[in-house]
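ok so i was messing around last nite and threw this chain in just to see what happens. nothing serious, just curious
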Amino acid sequence: MPTPQPTRRHFIAGLSTAAAATWTEQLRAAPEPKEEIIGHGAHRYRVIKDWVTPGQGRNHPILNCHEMVQVNDGRLFMVGDHSDNQMLIYKQDGTILNSWGSSWPGGHGLTHSDENGEEFLFVTDSGLWKSGSSSVRQCGRVAKIDLDGREIFTLSHPMTVGAYEADWNFNPTEVAIGPNGDIYIVDGYGSNYVLRYDHQGKFISRFGGKEGVPPEERLNNAHGIALDTRAGVDQATLIVTSRADNCFRRFTLEGKFVETIATPGAYVCRPVIAGQELYAGVCWSKDKDGKFVKDPSGFVVVIDAQGKVIAAPGAEEPVYDGDQLKPLLRKENVIDHGHDVCVLDNGDLVVCQWNALQTYPIKLEKVA
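result:
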């Protein structure tokens, strides 16, 4: 059951008679703030904007919140791009336990890997960040670290293994780990390929790309990737974001295209699979006329195992015309550039927001 939220009436106790009378009079004039519930069907949520209580930023500053994962002991690790504070560690109640990191200035992607009970994180530095009023682009990299931040190895520009030409951009955005430990990197801000390495970092192959492939298979801003084992490990596939095309593409582990999962009107970020459903933050959207909405913009999508969008917290309820999903339209002014969703064991969501005035993640507490 959701934890009851305190109201202003809880704070009258202990006041003097005169003070209590004054508070009571003010309360009669000002009704309790209305609870904000968003979502649809079995995916309705109470909005908790102050999940991280005020004041914690004094010791744990942030710039943009990018991605979050949960490790085996329940802690939540979040990567961002603050110059001196790129990894933040939370309790599930929003308390910040620790923060550290200054070697991933373009901190963007974060993936949890459990290797026979030994846990690691794959941190993706896109190589893109802002410095003052200027933007910086350099080569990105992926680092495998332990939970204390110690680096195991890194993977850098694919030209070093013959996978890219020297003048191709490498600005990776996300990593997925295959059932056998293979590492799949999406170059979402660079050349839009998926790069496959073995568990020790030896290059195997590449696939995808934006040019020279059928339009229905292309990766256009390959922003995220996830391993999908919902049909069983022996039938595992990869779901890859094609954000600029408002969809996900499914591939086999060897890189053969399987299908497209459409999210018209929604610029989806990383796919996150929890149970039988796929969740994703939406960073931007389109309006009812199909025009790009830069700001404010953002919500969450929930997609079932058959590829149907069944809920869109923060947006209008999804509507299908036959098999075709009508464009998703933002409704509530709740989520500001949703960049990632971390699904907790109880079904609550923690949403990381990009370009949201240096605010911490918000929590969506499940009510249905």
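not much to say yet. Residues 51 and 93 are 7 Å apart (CA to CA).
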